[in-house]
Structure to design on (606 residues):
């Protein structure tokens, strides 16, 4: 009997409807870098095309794949199988990043959570949209758009088949829009969870989509020949599984839980088992700006300090361009090395990170810049981290160096700037990246490319050299309200009443960003910028519930709550006196008696 026809029982669907109620789409761009080049230059469309980085073809179009050119092939080998292969240098990632951002924007048009994975993949949770569409759908007319992994012998009582049929139609619309607006073809996977949506996506590539019903999840998983196909199983977990002769996903399905528990924690053993059966309940997390911005350079071997310095210097130059485009001010830098271990004939990664002073960066006419002296400071920190990772008194062999800015301050306009207070994203979008990238735990699904064993250490000693930004009490409180308690809050400036010296640009920014209350609703998620900060939305709700019930409608209540108590009192008493309040609102800059009164910043934009 065909494996695909062996459905798992669905008689308990209603009891476990928590497992089937979601509808997830995974979209992957076909031969991504190659398509970007082909859209840019139509002459490349009908020729076999390879994208070259160093001596490797990182991807190729499907024309070239027909000749046997595969991803990550050596250029020399690719030219052997396809002598007329057209090669385009793909080392400058700028246009790929731009294309990736545009696809993300198109997908956001459906107003569902979109989680970006790498540059050319996105998960979209269309559960709510499907529920909406289901209300008006004629169930007899529903069909699966694109391919279906396997015909079901019976309807699932929980209704997931109809939901996934609608999801397949939404996926089709999304793919069509990406093609119509940007010219890129894509593949999609449609399933009730992220795991199956991602894994089923490439089944009919290119330019096609595949839906899988929950009952066939375990069957499909059993066709995967390596446990490594499962996202979040990295090299260490795979090694441990192989040592138990668990190689394919079906081996994992059959492995007794007790055996797994001997080699992994109990939670992890259970999780491995669930994954092998196609079960996964990780949520689609709305993506915002990347948590870190980094670049790596790999090579055969480097064993001399000055060469390492040159590599880092080149990386830093390129990284600063990316940071400028991003616009956030970095407050932490991470150095990564891949060391060749001659004895074990293997290599491993090590990282170390350090705080950096935001003052290294300057904002000039809205553009982030670093002076020559600032760059020297950064290089000094980078080389100091390097010497902590490598014992220079002994020979060393590196095969990769990497540099990343790992934490950011959203905006910084001056040490004592009120701007830092009067913005909702007042402190930092920061993430501490201290866990092993690969295999330490799989309690939450990590869909990012699994990296080889690696470790990152935060270098606290460097924090002394580059002083740690202070954490004012008030801002820490706001961070807590936003459920950022575990994250670090870095260097928002402290507001003192006597230090209110806004220059005109800051004032403009404040007015523009925070005080245009006529255009803003105070409901959570009203502002598009908020979509990246779902935790912030919650905090906003809390604040709205209590802190400033007497505030006039044009006042941002979260901003109000962030002000020192005495300032809040000053404002409240003014609002209680309509005459003075109105005067201040209509003519804030003419308030001669209190030139720096906070009142003038609470003026709706005209
Ligand atoms: P993939 O999605 O793996 O490949 P792809 O989009 O080129 O092809 P497919 O049609 O099979 O999805 O990777 C996305 C891009 O990432 C790819 O175009 C080039 C780049 N890339 C690298 O830089 N290094 C690599 O090792 C791989 C696999 C991809
Ligand atoms: Mg792709």
């Amino acid at each position: 009997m065909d494996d695909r026809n062996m459905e798992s029982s669905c008689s308990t669907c209603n009891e476990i409807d928590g497992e089937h109620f979601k509808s997830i789409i995974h979209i992957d761009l076909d031969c991504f870098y190659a398509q970007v080049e082909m859209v840019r230059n139509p002459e490349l469309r009908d020729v076999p095309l390879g994208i070259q980085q160093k001596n490797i073809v990182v991807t190729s179009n499907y024309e070239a794949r027909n000749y046997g050119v595969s991803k990550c092939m050596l250029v020399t080998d690719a030219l052997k199988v396809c002598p007329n292969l057209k090669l385009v240098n793909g080392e400058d990632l700028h246009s790929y990043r731009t294309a990736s951002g545009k696809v993300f924007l198109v997908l956001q048009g459906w107003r569902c959570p979109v989680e970006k994975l790498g540059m050319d993949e996105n998960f979209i949770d269309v559960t709510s949209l499907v529920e909406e569409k289901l209300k008006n759908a004629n169930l007899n007319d529903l069909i699966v758009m694109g391919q279906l992994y396997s015909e079901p012998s019976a309807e699932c009582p929980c209704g997931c088949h109809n939901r996934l049929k609608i999801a397949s139609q939404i996926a089709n619309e999304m793919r069509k829009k990406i093609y119509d607006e940007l010219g890129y073809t894509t593949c999609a996977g449609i399933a009730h969870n992220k795991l199956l949506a991602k894994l089923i996506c490439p089944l009919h590539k290119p330019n096609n989509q595949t839906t899988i019903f929950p009952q066939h999840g375990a069957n499909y998983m059993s066709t995967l020949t390596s446990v490594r196909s499962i996202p979040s199983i990295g090299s260490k977990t795979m090694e441990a599984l192989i040592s138990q002769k668990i190689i394919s996903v079906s081996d994992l399905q059959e492995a007794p839980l007790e055996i797994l528990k001997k080699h992994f924690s109990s939670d992890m053993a259970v999780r491995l088992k669930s994954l092998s059966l196609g079960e996964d309940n990780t949520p689609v997390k709305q993506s915002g700006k990347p948590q870190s911005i980094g670049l790596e350079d790999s090579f055969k071997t480097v064993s001399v300090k000055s060469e390492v310095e040159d590599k880092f210097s080149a990386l830093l130059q390129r990284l600063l361009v990316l940071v400028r485009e991003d616009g956030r001010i970095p407050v932490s830098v991470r150095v990564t090395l891949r060391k060749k271990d001659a004895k074990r004939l293997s290599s491993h990664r090590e990282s170390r990170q350090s705080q950096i002073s935001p003052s290294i960066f300057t904002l000039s006419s809205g553009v982030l810049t670093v002076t020559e002296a600032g760059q020297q400071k950064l290089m000094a920190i980078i080389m100091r981290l390097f010497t902590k990772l490598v014992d220079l008194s002994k020979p060393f062999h590196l095969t990769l160096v990497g540099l990343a800015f790992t934490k950011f301050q959203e905006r910084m306009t001056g040490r004592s700037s009120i701007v830092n207070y009067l913005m909702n994203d007042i402190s930092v979008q920061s993430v501490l990246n201290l866990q092993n990238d690969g295999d330490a735990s799989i309690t939450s699904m990590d869909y990012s490319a699994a990296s080889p064993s690696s470790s990152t250490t935060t270098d606290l000693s460097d924090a002394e050299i580059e002083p740690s930004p202070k954490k004012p009490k008030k801002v820490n409180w706001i961070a807590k309200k936003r459920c950022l308690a575990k994250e670090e809050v870095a260097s928002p400036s402290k507001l003192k009443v006597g230090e209110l010296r806004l220059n005109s640009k800051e004032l403009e920014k404040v007015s523009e960003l925070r005080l245009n209350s006529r255009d803003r609703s105070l409901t959570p998620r009203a502002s598009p910028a908020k979509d990246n900060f779902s935790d912030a939305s919650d905090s906003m709700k809390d604040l709205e519930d209590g802190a400033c019930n007497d505030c006039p409608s044009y006042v941002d209540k979260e901003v109000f709550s962030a002000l020192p108590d005495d300032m809040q009192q000053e404002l409240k008493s003014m609002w209680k006196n309509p005459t003075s309040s109105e005067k201040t609102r209509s003519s804030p800059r003419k308030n001669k008696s209190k030139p720096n009164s906070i009142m003038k910043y609470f003026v709706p934009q005209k």
